[in-house]
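Lecture 7, part B: from sequences to assemblies.

Below are the input chains for today's worked example.
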Amino acid sequence: MPQESKTVTVEGKKLTLTNLSKVLYPQTGFTKANVIDYYRRIAPYILPHLHNRPVTLKRYPHGVDSPFFYQKNCPLHPDWLETSPPDDYFKENFCIVNDLPSLIWIENLASIEIHTLLATTKNLLQPEMVVFDLDPGEPASLIDCLRIALVMRDMLEGLGLKSFPKTSGGKGLHFYVPLNTVVNYDQTSSFAKMVAQVMEKHFPELVVSKMKKDLRKGKIFVDWSQNSRHKTTACVYTLRARPEPAVSMPVTWKQVETALKKNNSESLIYTAEKAIERVAKVGDIFKDVLMLRQSITAPKPNLQSKPLDVSEKDQEYNLKIYRQKRNFKKTAEPVGGKETKLDYIFVIQKHAATRLHYDLRLQSQGVLKSWAIPKGLSSDPKERRLAVRTEDHPFDYKDFEGIIPEGQYGAGEVIIWDKGYYINITRDSRGRTVSMEDAIKKGKIEVYFEGTKIKGGYALIRLKPGKDEKENWLVIKLKDQFVGSLPDDLQQIGQSVVTGKSIEDLKKTNKKKKILS
Ligand code: MN
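Predicted structure of the full complex, as structure tokens:
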């Protein structure tokens, strides 16, 4: 029989621990003494994640089967325990858990779950990460979460962002995008919302981004709403109030992939004991979340400093070629150069220049990476269509539809033939994701389109350089459920997805203009 209460000295601080034999997890007999002991042993790993981070205590004084309460205001505490002073926004003075005595002290309050703000007291207006909470609605399972999480990982990787998963301790998966750079909550929450909405748009049968409970049945709820100033989320390594003493445990993407392959998520479930064994072996695999500096604000195209060197085909971030070719007093095409929104759109413009062609443009690195495809895209994987790389276009070009005047570069009619979102799904030979920037450099891109007309996977492959200056690529449909979704004759779907106009409609207007002038 363990002692009911005892006084201990932890790092020079005297603490009286009470009700130690109280069972907090009735199904397993895990007591308050066990809870405190877990936190004592996990302390070297959890403390860095708690450092200067205001915490909400989720207290279960009578165990996980009995009523709990959230405590934001730090209860009556010893002098040495730090708190964050209330301000105009937060009326509460949260506990700050910066050392082992503080951790043991909050655990003596049966704070089974520790939830943290995304910011620290250093600057409470600056979230240090973006967090997504993937929550399966019955009968969807953790396995379904893993599948969605991997797609989201790839999508974020395509934006140059690394992310880190942890289990919720239950059926869900959390994943974090470390920032540790200057950003505010408006930016992080609109970014998270955009990602969730794009996921919902791409996978409407699997993903829901809205809170409403009845929408979630059999789907994964991608909860982006945690990214607000007042929200706290379950800290990594916290115990969860499940039937078993489960831990919200960081896992590697490799573990996620393996679990998905085996269709068994058992290996991702960590109880207190297993968690301690694991950290002893691998250390804190979540530490990058605290260190890695990443930005969700799109890179600005660098317009001045880079010298123009066409021989190297150095078109990255460069709108100089685009601008040299055009007289903006005469054409209505955009000059560009405004900071782009973080987004990943694609557009295909049908362009009746000297030769009719389709211009495919993918947003990347602040501009639209562009290819001219004489025959347009096919939905037949056996068709290999030529795509000639053209100069980067400004982001604003995605909205351009109209007539480029005679005598100007590319004179002729342009309609927005299709537009939508794309996800970079490029992998290297070892199956690792490749960023869009690297994929373009290496000459092998795989993307997943979600447009009105174009859907599913396509590969773009650069051919060996020939005699001419042009970069020739092939665009090939990947095998998926969208094979055969396009008519052989694209003229059958020749209208603008924005205005409904065809090239012929624009030509008529053009003629009228000419007669009038
Ligand atoms: Mn063109």
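Note for the exam: The pocket of manganese (II) ion is lined by residues 351, 353, 357, 359, 372, 410 (CB under 6 Å). Keep this in mind when comparing with the next example.
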